[in-house]
## 1
Amino acid sequence: MKNSNESDNLQSDKKRLYSGVAWYFFSNLFPAFSSLLIFSLASRIITPGDLGAVTLAATITTILTSICAVGFGDALIQLRNVEKKHYNTVFFICLISSMFIYFISSLIVEYYVAPTFDVVFKTVYPVIALKIIIDSCAIVPLSFLTRTMAFKSIAIRTMYCSIASIILCLPVLYFGGGVWAIVLSQLSTSVISYIILATSSNLTLRPIFDKSSFSELSRFGITTTFTKLVTSISIDNVIIGVYGSVTTLGIYAFSRRVFGSIADVLNNAIANVSYPLYASVQTKPSQLKNVFFKTTFFSTLLSLPAFTGLIIISPHLIPLIFGTQWIVAIPVIQVCCVIGFISCIGSLQMSLIKGLGNTAWILKYQIFQQITTALLVFLFARDGALVLILSIAIKTFIIWPYTVYYISRILGVTTFSYISNFIKPFTSVILMYLGCYVIDRELSGANELWNVLSLIFSGVVIYCVFIFILARKEISESLTAIKKSKKPKVENYE
C-alpha cells in the first residue's frame, strides 16, 4: 500500500513538473521574443555607451530590489503552514523597505554621484528604479501562486506583459527614443505583471506587521534575502561600469543580453517549477531523488541544444539582427553559451538545496562566487570582454565538479548516476553540432538570413532525430505527463 501511494505521488510530481515546465517554457518565449525585439531595434540607434549607462542603472535597481525582503517570498513557499498574517507581514516589509530604498538611492544619484558621471545614467535611474517598489510589492502574490503551483496563471501573466511591452515601446523606438524604449520596456513589464499577479492571486493584502509571523519566516527569509542580494549583484557590470567605462560595459552587457534571451527562458522554466516541488517532497528522499533526476534530464534536454544552436548561428545572426557594429561581441556570446549549460544545471542545484532549507550553504557559496568573479574582473576587465568572459568560464568549470559532488552526497547517490542524466542529450548535441558545421561550410557565401534559417532547421531536425532515438522512453513519459496533467488545487490563505 505504501509503495502504491509513493508511486502515485511520484506520478503526480512528474505531471506537475512537466506541465509546469511546459507552461513556463511556452510563456517565457513571449517575453524573451518581445524583449529581444525591442533590444535589437534599440541597439541599432543607441551607442554602446548609452547601453552601458542603462545597464548600470538596471543592475543597481536589481541589487536594491533584492534588499527588499525578496527572500521572504521564498520563505512563504517553504513554510509548511501559511496564514493570512504571514502574507500581510511580508507585504508590509516589502512595501516599507522598497519605498525607503527607492527614495534614498534616488537622492544619492541626484546629489552625491559625481556631476561628471554619465548623464544618461543620472537621467534614467530615477525612472527605472521605480521597479524597486513595484517588483517588491509583487513578491507576495507571486509567492502565493508559486506555492500553489498555479503555473498557468503565472505563464499567462508573462505573455500579457510581453504583448503590452511591444505595444508601448514600438512608438518610442519609431520616434528615436532608443534608451527610453529599453527603460519603458522594463518598467511597463513590472507594472502590468503586478496588476495581473494581484488579480490572479485574489489576495486581499494589508501592510500589517505581525511579530510572531516574522519570527517564523525570519530565519529562512533573512538568509535567503542576503543570498539573493549576493547573487543579484552583477559584480562584473558594477566594476566594469565604475572601474572601466560605460562603452566597455555596453559591449559586455550586449553579449550577456543576447545570451540571456535563451538562458532566462530555460532557467525560469525549470528552476521556478522545481523549487516548490523539491520543497513539497523534502521529507521523502526517494521521491526527491527521482524528481531531481527528472528535472535535471529535462533541463539538459532543452539547454544543451539551445546554447549550442546559438553558438552555431551567432556569426550570421548578430550582424543580421543587431547590425555590424556588434560583430565584436560574437566570440563573447559564444563563450557565454558554453557557460550557459552550467548555469542552467546550477539553478536546479540551488533550487534543491534551497528546497531543503539549507540557505546558509547557498549564501556561503554565492559569496565565494562573487568574490572570485570580482577578482577576475579587476584582473582582466581592461584586457577586453573576451578575455574577461574566458576567465569566468574557466572559473565556472573548475568550481562545478564540487557542486556535483555536494548534490550527489545530499541525494545519497553516486556521482556517475547524477552525471548519467547528461549523457544522451550531450551525445545528441555533439552530432547536431557536427551536422550543422558541415552544412554551414556548404552554405558559405550565401545570404545571411538563408544561413540562419537553414542552420536552425537542420539543427532542430538532427537533434530531434537523435534524441528521440536515444531517449525515446524519457521523452514519451514527459509528453504523456503533460497531456494528463490537471490544474492544481489552490489553497485558501484565509
## 2
Amino acid sequence: MAAWRSAATFPKPLGTCSNGETVHPLFPMFRRLASATLLSALLVLTTHSSDKPNFVLVMADDQGWGDMGYYGHPFVKTPHFDEMARSSLRFDRFYSAAPNCSPTRASVLTGRNPVRVNVLNHGRSMRPQDTTIAEALKTVGYATGHFGKWHVGSCQPISPVNPTNSGFDAWLSTPNFFDLDPVMSRNGIAEQMMGESSMVIVDAALEFICEQSDKGTPFLSIIWFGSPHSPFDAMGSDKQLYQGEEMAGYYREITAMDRAFGKLRNEIRKLEIHENTLLWYCSDNGGLNTETSGGREKKGSLYEGGLRVPAILEWPRRINNSRTTETPCVTSDIYPTLVEIAGARVANQFALDGVSLLELINGNTLNRSTGIGFWQYPHPGRLTYADRMMIALLEAQKQGLEHDPNGRLDLDAGKISKQYSENEFPGHSAWLEFPWKLHRIVDQGEETLELYNLISDSQETTNLHSQESPHTERLLAHLEEWQIAVMRSLNGKDY
C-alpha cells in the first residue's frame, strides 16, 4: 500500500480482512440519519443482500476517448484498462453529460442533466434537494463510499452538499483536482496524505471495500481520479515515461492511473467478490488532445471531441465475454441503471435524462425512448483550488475550529432565487438521435443551427442543416421540448 501516515499516528493496531489481507482501521464511519422527508420519498424493495451486486464507479478527469492503448494509441501504455476491455462490455459511443467536470459528476450522482440541478459550470454545487445514487441505494441496504475528486460542493463538515449530506457513509475526498501528497477531507476532517494521488484514493477505497466484504454488505464505491488533469506531478519512477513527447505529463498521469486501477481490479479478485461486482469506468469529459479525442474539438466543446469518452463495464456474473456496443449512452444513464439493478425505487423521482442500460448489459438491443440532450448554459464557473482549501481547513482544525471560516461552504446550495426564462435558450445546446446530431448555438440573440450525420461525418465538418431540413425540424422540436423541461427544473419546479 502507499504510505499514508507515520505509524505513530494510527490509534489502533492493524486489522485483517477475512481473506488475510492487511488493512488499516482508517474509516471510522459516521452515518447520516436520513430525514423523514427523504424516507417518505423512497420506497424500499427488500431483497436478500447476497443477491445484490456491488457497484464500483471509477471516473478519470480529462481522459480523452482515444487516450487508451486498446484504441491503438501510438505510445501511451494502459495495460490494465486494455485487459479489462478484452473481457468486458466496451462502449464505443459513450458520452459525458457535459464537456467539463462538475456538471458530468452531477449527472452521475442524479441521473439528470446537470442544468436541471444547477450545476451550470465547473465548481458549481449541486442542489441538496436532488436524490443521489448513494441515497437511493442506501434504502436497499447498500454501504456507500466516495473517494477522490468531489467538485459538486464543499468537503467541509457543515456543508449541505458534502459527501455525507449526499448519502455517503465514508469518504476521502477533495473539492477539485489533486496530485502528489494531497491534503484531503476524510468525513470532513482534513488529513495530509502521502503518495501518488490515484493510488492514495484506490487504497482508501479498498479499505472500505474490504470492510464491507467482511460484513457481507453490498456496497457502492465511487472513485473519482484527479488524473490526468494538471498539474502533472509524476512520481520519480514515472518521470522517465514519454520523454520528448508533447503533453508527456498528461500521458504519465494516464499510465499512473492505469496502474492504480489495476490494483483495484486485482484486489477485488483477491477478495473473491469480483463475480458479482459491477465495475464501471469512464471519463468526465473529452481529453486535451484533439488528435485522439474521437471527434471534432476537445474538452470544453459540445462537438464529439468534448463529449465522447472511453467507457468499459465489467460484471462477470452477467458479462462473461468481450462485447462492444456502438449504442449511444451517457453518464446520466449510470443512476437509473444501478437503481434498476439494485431493485430500488424512488417514489417521488424527479425527471431523469438517463435511461437504464440493463438490457444492453444483458446483451439485448437498447432502444432509447428519447434522444440525448446536451447544454452548455452560459454561466460562469467557480475556481476551486483544492490544495489551498484543504490546507486552510487543516490549519483551521489545528486551531480547534470545526471548519475553515473563510472557506466556501455552499450553505445556500439549496436556495432557489433567480428565475431563468423558460422561453429563451442561450448558449450551445445539442440533441443526439443517432446518427443525427443537431447543434443549436445562440449568441447574443443570433441562432445558428448545425446538423451532422455521425456515421458518415464523425468529425462534424459538413453541416447538413439546409439539405436535411426534415431532420433539422424534427430534432429541433425535440431539443426545444427538452430545454423547456430542463429550464423548469432549473427554476425549482420539480421540488
## 3
Amino acid sequence: MNETYDLLVIGGGINGAGIARDAAGRGMRVLLVEKDDLASHTSSASTKLVHGGLRYLEHYEFRLVAESLREREVLLRNAPHIIWPLRFVMPHEPSMRPKWMLRAGLMLYDRIGGRMSLPKSKSVDLRIAPHRAILQDRLKTGFEYSDCWVEDSRLVVLTAKDAEERGADVQVRTACIGLERKADRWLAILEDTNGTKTVTAKAVVNASGPFVDRIARTALGQGTPAHLRLVKGSHIIVSRRFAGEHAYIFQQPDGRIVFAIPYERDFTLIGTTDLLYEGDLDHVAIAPAETAYLCEAASRYFNSAVTEDEIATTYSGVRPLYEDNAASNSTVTRDYVFELEAGGGAPILSVYGGKITTYRKLAEHALEKLAGVMNVPGTNWTAHAPLPGGDMGERGFAHFLWEASERFPWLPPEMLLRLARAYGTRLDRVLDNASCCEDLGQLFGGDLYEAELRYLAEHEYARSADDVLWRRSKLGLHLPAEAHSAVADWFTARA
C-alpha cells in the first residue's frame, strides 16, 4: 500500500527544507526528497552571507531588501551558532560609484528594514590600520556597514532536521523519477539505492532549484514553458590575505561587486561571478575565465596581486533565477516567484529564485499560496522558533561558549569553538558523555573524531565523506587526503 502524504516536497536545498519545516510544524504530513545530499547544489555554493543585498537598491528592489534585512534579524536570533555579524568595508573608487551615491544607499540600507540590532554604517579612513597595510595606497576613504555570515549547508541540514523532528519524513539520495496527476492527488515514483516505490501526496512542491523546470515538465508535460535563467556563480578560496575579522566589498569596472571574506581561519573567500550556464547541472565547475576575473578583481584593490598559485580550492553553483528578461545576469531579480498550477487536478507549486536570507519568509508565502487550493492548517510560527542548537536565549553564543568551556575543559579551544559553532546547544549529544578526547573514538585527522562522524550519520543524514568534510563542515580544507580516505572507509564499513 502506498504511503500517503499531504505534501511532497522535491528538493533538499534551503527552499525545500524551509517549506517542509514550516508545513510539518503546522501539522501537515510532509515528505521531503532529495536526489543527492542535502544542500548538494546551489545552497552550498553561496557566498555564505545572510544579507539585505545592498546592491539590489540600485535595481530598485526595495521590497526584497527590506524583507531581507528583517529576515537577517530573525535568522540571527534563531540560529546564533551558525549565523553571526560581519562588518564589511567598501573602499571608495573614484572612477566608479560616487561617494554621495554610496552614502545615500547605506543610509537607506540602515533604515529600510526597520529597527535593526547590528551597528549602522559609517565612513572609514583607509589610510590607518588595518587597511593601510592591506589595500593599495590610492584608496583613501570608504564605508563600513553590517551584514551576517552563515554556514549555508548547515542551515539547510538543521532546517531539514527541525522538519523531521516536527514530523516530516526526510529522505536523501531519493530521486523523484515520475509524477502522475490525479484529480485529488499525485502519484510519485521515487528511486533510491533499494529500488523504486510509489507514494501518494495531495500536493507537490517543486523546490528543486536549477532542476525546477525539469521536474515541472515531468509533472505537467513537455509543453510546459521554461521560466529559468541559469546563472553560474563561482568562488575561489585563497590563503589568508589579511588579518582581522572584517570583510571587503570591491566595486568592479563592469558594475559588479566582489567580496573578499575571512574564511575558515586560514583562508580568504573571493567571489562571485555571474555567467549564463547551459552545462551539466550535476557537474558545475569554475571556468578559467572566472578564475582570472576573480584574481584580477581582488588584485585591483589588494596591495599585492592575487595569483592562481594561491588558490586552495574553488566551488561553483547555479542560481535558478526567474527569467525577467533583464539585460544582464547581475541585474536579474534575486526575488522569489511561485508558479501554482491547480487547474488540471491536484496542485503543484514550483519555486523559482530566492535567497538564503529570505528562505523562511519564502516558505510562509509558499504555504499561503497552497492555502488557496488545499487545506493548510495552522498559522505562521517559524519567526520565533530556534533551529536545532540555536536555543541559547538572550545571553547568546558568547555566553554559551564560555559555559561550554567550563563544562568541557578537556576540549582544545579551537576544537570547542568549531563544535560549538556547528552544533550549538546540541554539543552534548555530539560528545556523547565523553570526558576526554580518547572517549571520542578514532581520530581521523585534525580534531575530527568518530563520535562526530557517528552523530552526523545518525542524526544529520550524512552518507559519505564529502557530506561530512565539505557540507556539514569545511574540514576538507584542513585535513590531508588520507583523512578523506579514512572517513570514506568508515562510511563504507558502516553501510
